[in-house]
TrEMBL record:
Coiled coil regions in record: none
InterPro entries in UniProt: Flag_bb_rod_N (IPR001444), Flagellar_basal_body_rod_CS (IPR019776), FlgB (IPR006300)
Quaternary structure and interacting proteins, as annotated: The basal body constitutes a major portion of the flagellar organelle and consists of a number of rings mounted on a central rod.
Location(s) in or outside the cell: Bacterial flagellum basal body
Species annotation: Aliidiomarina haloalkalitolerans
Protein's name according to its UniProt entry: Flagellar basal body rod protein FlgB
Pfam families reported in the protein's UniProt record: Flg_bb_rod
Location (main, coarse): other
Stretches for region Disordered: 56-77
């Protein structure tokens, strides 16, 4: 029972982590819309989610080493996406920038809505489990 619950929540945790990472990538694209020669980036959410669920997350950096008893433990390394790709623009700009603001805004909004939907789905799942575990 606990294994099934952990597996289900693990999938949603990975999905939320990837949605968060994608939100940062899209926000970076929007922030650099006027930067000459900036290349817009994104990743394939579905393939990254499959990789994250099957293989676990890839982390960059290392935690802080503690050599003395009084040292404070460091935080976890940050999650990274392996296949961050450049986006091909529909129409090239003269300054070399490939950010299409309409496309970026729509993808940013779509990702935000999907993030909220995932949160609501997890919330409903947990409420259902609580109800099932409570005695009447």
């Amino acid at each position: 029972m606990i294994d099934k619950l952990t597996g289900t929540l693990h999938f949603h945790q990975e999905a939320l982590n990837l949605r968060h990472e994608r939100q940062q990538v899209l926000a970076n694209n929007i922030a650099n819309a006027d930067t000459p020669n900036f290349k817009a980036r994104d990743f394939d959410f579905r393939s990254e989610l499959e990789r994250a669920v099957q293989q676990g997350r890839n982390t960059t950096g290392t935690g802080l080493a503690t050599t003395q008893k009084g040292h404070i433990q460091g935080g976890k390394p940050q999650f990274t996406v392996d296949n961050l790709q450049y986006r091909n623009p529909h129409q090239a700009r003269m300054d070399g920038n490939t950010v299409d603001m309409d496309m970026e805004r729509s993808r940013f909004l779509d990702n935000s809505v999907r993030y909220q939907a995932s949160l609501q789905f997890i919330d409903g799942r947990i409420k259902g489990l609580r109800t099932a575990m409570q005695s009447e």
